[in-house]
Specification:
The structure holds 2 protein chains of 2 kinds. Helices cover 78% and strands 1% of the residues of chain A. By secondary structure, chain A is mainly α. In chain A, strand 1 and strand 2 form a beta hairpin. Chain A starts with a helix and ends with a helix. By secondary structure, chain B is an all-alpha fold. Chain B is 77% helix and 0% strand. Chain B contains 7 helices and no strands. The longest helix of chain B has 29 residues. Classes of the chains: A mainly alpha, B mainly alpha. At the A-B interface, helix 5, helix 6, helix 8 and helix 9 of A face helix 4, helix 5, helix 6 and helix 7 of B.
C-alpha cells in the first residue's frame, strides 16, 4: 500500500503538472508532491526497519535495507531540490532563459524522473530495473537541453546517444542473465526476480554470468559515469538547469551504481571468484585518478563539480569492488553523504552563478561578502566533499582507505594520490571564488537557504556521530551484499 | 512445419537480418537506410512469430505484432516524416570509408561468434546458433553510430542496435518475459518522440543535422 503511494504520487504529480503547466502554483504543487513522496519514503523505511525486508505486488516489488535507504535518500533530496528550484527556476524564467513550454515540461519531467528512480530502486525484477533506468535517462534528456543553447543541445545529444548505447549493452547483459537463470528457475517472469535469483546464485552457470557482467558493467558503468565511459557526464551535468544537475549528480549516479551492485552480488555468488570485484576496482580507481587530474583544468564551476561526482562515484565503485564488511559499509555511507553534500554544493553553485550570471569561475568572486550564506555554504560544502573532518565524507573515505590498506595495499598509494589531488584542486579553485571583494558584476538576491543548511547539517551529523539506527541499517545492508 | 524446417527458416531469416545490417553500413542515402531498417524489423517480426510457433510460446506472438507495428510501421514513418520536413536528402561524408567499415563489420561478426561460443554450447534451444548474429547486429549498429556524422543516421544505428537486442532475446531465451518486452517497447517509443524533438532543435540551432558541428564542449587547455 505504502509502495503504491510512494510510486503513485510522483506519477500523478507528473500528470497534474503537465496539465497545469506554467501557472502560478506549479512550483508549490511540485514541492507538495515531492514532500508527500518523501513522507511515504520515510514511512516505508520505518516499516522495513520494524519488520524486516518485505515484498509486495505479487513479488513485483522487493524492499530490503539496501534499497530502502536509497529510496529515502532519493525522495528526500528530490524534495529539497523542489524547494530550491521554486525560486531558482522562477528567476531563470525572469531572465528569459526558459519559456512557457519549458516550465511546464520542467515540472512534469522532474516528477516523472523521481518516479523512474524510485521504480528502479523498488522493483524486484531485473528487467524492469533496466526499463526504469532507461526511463530515468529519457525523462532528463530534454531537461538537459532546456535552455536550447547550442552547448545545451550538444550536451543533451551526447547524453542521449552515449547513455542510450551504454544502457543497451546492459540489456544484453540482462538477456544473458535471464538465459542462465531460466535453466535453473524455469521460464517466465519469475526467473528475473532478484529474490529468486539471489537464492540460486550457486547454480547459475559461471561462464555465462561472467560474460553477462562485462556487459552489465559497461552498460550501467556508463550511467555511473566511470572512466573511460564518462564523456557525457560533465556536459550533461553542467549544461542543464542547476536543480537538474543536483539530482543527476546526487541521485541518478547512485541508482546506476545500485543496479550494478545488485548484479555483482549475483555474479559473485555464481563464479565464486573476485573477478567482478576486480573489474569494479579497476574502473573505480581509474575514475578517481582521471577525474582528480581533470579537476585541475576546469574553468566552468558546474563542470568542475561534475568531475568531482565522477571521482566520488569512482570511490564508491572501488569500495564495492573491494568487498568485505568495512569497505561495503564505507561505500554505502559514501553514497549517502556524497549525495547530500553534492546536491547542497549544486544549490549554492546555482545561486552563485545566478548572482554573477555566469558559470565561469574566473568571474565569480567575493561570495562570502556578497552573500554569506552562499559563500560559506560553498566553502563548507567543498570542505565536506574533499573529505575534511568532521564531515561525513571523511568517515566514509577513512573506512574505505582502512579497508584498502588491509585488503589491497598496492592500491593505497593510487587512492591517496587521487584524493590528494582532488583536495588540492578543489580548494585552489574555490578559495578565490568565496574570498575577496564583491565584484561589480555581482547582484544581490534572495536565496533559498533551507535546502543547503539541511543537507550540510545532515552531513555534519553523520560525520560526528553515526546514529545507531543508521549503522544497524548499514550492517543489515552489508549482510545482503555479502 | 517440423522442427528441422523451422530451424532452417530461423537461420535463413537470421542471415537476412545480418544482410540488412551490412546493407545499412554500406548505404549512404537516408531514405534507403530507413527502408532497410523497416525490412530488418519485418524480418525480426516474422522470425519472432516462427519461434513463437515453434516453441509454443504465445507471448512471442504479442512481441511479434508489437515489433511489426512499432519497428516496421511507426518508427520508419516518423523518420520518414522528419526527413521530408527537414528536407534531408543525402548523408554527409562518413568518417571511415565504406569498404573499411564493411571489413570492420566482418571482424565484428567473427568476434561475436567467438564471444557467444560458451553460451551456444550450453543452450539447448534450436535458435541458439542465431545468438551470434544478434550480437553482431548489435555491434554493427554501434559501429554505424560511431562512423556516421549525421544525427538521423546515428539514430537509425541506435534503432538497429535495439533490433539486435530484441533478436538476441528471442534467440537466447525465446524472448524476455512479457512485462519486460512491453517496457522496452515503451522506452523505444518515448525515445522516438525525444529524437524527433531533438532533430528540430538541432536543425534550428545548427542549421543542419551534421553532428560534427557539435564540438563546443571540450576540455580547454
Amino acid at each position: 500500500m505504502i509502495l503504491l503511494i510512494l510510486l503513485g504520487v510522483p506519477l500523478v504529480a507528473a500528470a497534474a503538472l503537465g496539465f497545469i503547466g506554467d501557472r502560478r502554483l506549479a512550483p508549490e504543487i511540485n514541492i507538495i508532491g515531492s514532500a508527500a513522496t518523501c513522507a511515504a519514503g520515510f514511512d516505508l523505511a520505518f516499516q522495513v526497519y520494524e519488520h524486516g525486508p518485505m515484498m509486495a505486488g505479487g513479488k513485483f516489488f522487493f524492499v530490503d535495507a539496501f534499497n530502502v535507504y536509497l529510496a529515502v535518500l532519493t525522495s528526500f533530496v528530490s524534495m529539497t531540490t523542489a524547494v530550491f528550484s521554486r525560486r531558482y527556476m522562477r528567476r531563470e524564467r525572469e531572465h528569459g532563459r526558459v519559456g512557457h513550454v519549458g516550465m511546464r515540461f520542467y515540472h512534469a519531467m522532474f516528477q516523472l524522473f523521481i518516479f523512474a528512480m524510485l521504480l528502479c530502486l523498488l522493483t524486484n525484477n531485473i528487467g524492469v530495473l533496466w526499463i526504469a533506468m532507461e526511463l530515468a535517462t529519457l525523462s532528463t534528456v530534454l531537461l538537459v537541453s532546456l535552455y536550447r543553447t547550442p552547448t545545451a543541445i550538444e550536451a543533451a545529444w551526447k547524453y542521449f546517444i552515449l547513455c542510450g548505447v551504454g544502457i543497451s549493452l546492459a540489456l544484453f547483459g540482462t538477456v544473458l542473465l535471464y538465459f542462465a537463470a531460466e535453466k535453473v528457475l524455469g521460464e517466465g517472469g519469475d526467473a528475473l526476480l532478484w529474490t529468486n535469483l539471489s537464492q540460486v546464485t550457486g547454480q547459475l552457470e559461471p561462464t555465462v554470468l561472467s560474460l553477462a557482467f562485462v556487459f552489465l558493467m559497461v552498460g550501467y558503468g556508463t550511467k555511473v559515469g566511470l572512466v573511460p565511459l564518462h564523456n557525457w557526464l560533465p556536459d550533461a551535468h553542467s549544461e542543464g538547469p542547476t536543480p537538474i544537475s543536483a539530482v543527476l549528480s546526487g541521485l541518478l549516479l547512485n541508482i546506476a551504481l545500485y543496479a550494478l551492485v545488485r548484479c555483482k552480488v549475483l555474479v559473485d555468488g555464481s563464479t565464486h571468484t573476485h573477478h567482478a570485484g576486480n573489474i569494479m576496482m579497476g574502473f573505480g580507481l581509474l575514475s578517481i585518478l582521471v577525474a582528480a587530474f581533470s579537476l585541475l583544468r576546469q574553468k566552468d564551476i558546474k563542470r568542475m563539480f561534475s568531475y568531482s561526482s565522477i571521482e566520488h562515484m569512482g570511490i564508491a565503485t572501488f569500495a564495492f569492488g573491494l568487498g568485505g564488511p568495512i569497505a561495503t559499509f564505507g561505500a554505502l555511507l559514501h553514497m549517502l553523504v556524497h549525495s547530500l553534500a553534492k546536491s547542497a554544493i549544486f544549490f549554492t553553485v546555482g545561486h552563485a552563478s545566478q548572482m554573477h550570471r555566469t558559470q565561469e569561475m574566473d568571474k565569480i568572486q567575493g561570495l562570502i561578502r556578497g552573500n554569506p550564506l552562499v559563500g560559506w555554504g560553498l566553502m563548507f560544502g567543498v570542505m565536506a566533499i574533499v573529505g575534511m573532518p568532521p564531515f561525513g565524507i571523511f568517515t566514509s573515505e577513512f573506512l574505505i582507505l582502512t579497508a584498502t590498506i588491509k585488503d589491497a595495499p598496492l592500491m593505497t598509494p593510487f587512492l591517496l594520490l587521487g584524493l590528494g589531488v582532488a583536495f588540492a584542486a578543489l580548494f585552489r579553485k574555490v578559495q578565490p571564488m568565496v574570498a575577496g571583494e564583491v565584484p561589480s558584476n555581482q547582484r544581490s538576491m534572495k536565496v533559498s537557504h533551507l535546502p543547503v543548511l539541511f543537507h550540510m547539517l545532515l552531513v555534519l551529523v553523520v560525520g560526528l556521530y553515526l546514529p545507531d539506527f543508521l549503522s544497524r541499517w548499514f550492517h543489515t545492508a552489508v549482510e545482503v551484499l555479502k | 512445419m517440423d522442427l528441422q524446417t523451422a530451424a532452417q527458416i530461423n537461420s535463413f531469416l537470421a542471415a537476412f537480418v545480418l544482410l540488412t545490417a551490412f546493407g545499412m553500413l554500406a548505404q549512404k542515402r537516408i531514405s534507403s537506410l530507413i527502408h532497410l531498417f523497416a525490412w530488418q524489423g519485418f524480418l525480426l517480426s516474422v522470425n519472432t512469430a516462427i519461434v513463437g510457433y515453434l516453441a509454443n510460446k504465445h507471448h512471442l506472438y504479442i512481441s511479434s505484432v508489437l515489433t511489426l507495428s512499432l519497428k516496421v510501421v511507426l518508427l520508419p514513418y516518423i523518420l520518414h516524416v522528419l526527413v521530408v520536413r527537414l528536407k534531408i536528402r543525402r548523408e554527409v561524408e562518413t568518417l571511415v570509408n565504406i569498404p573499411m567499415t564493411m571489413l570492420i563489420g566482418l571482424a565484428l561478426v567473427i568476434f561475436s561468434y567467438h564471444l557467444t561460443a560458451p553460451v551456444r554450447e550450453l543452450s539447448t534451444l534450436i535458435t541458439r546458433s542465431t545468438l551470434a548474429i544478434a550480437l553482431a547486429t548489435v555491434m554493427i549498429g554501434l559501429l554505424m553510430m560511431i562512423t556516421r556524422k549525421h544525427a538521423v543516421t546515428q539514430i537509425i544505428g541506435f534503432l538497429a542496435l535495439e533490433n539486435g537486442l530484441f533478436f538476441a532475446a528471442t534467440s537466447a531465451t525465446y524472448g524476455m518475459p512479457l512485462v519486460v518486452e512491453l517496457g522496452v517497447a515503451l522506452d523505444v517509443l518515448i525515445a522516438a518522440f525525444i529524437f524527433g524533438i531533438f532533430f528540430f532543435h538541432i536543425h534550428t540551432t545548427f542549421d543542419s543535422l551534421n553532428v560534427e558541428q557539435m564540438a563546443r564542449l571540450k576540455e580547454e587547455d
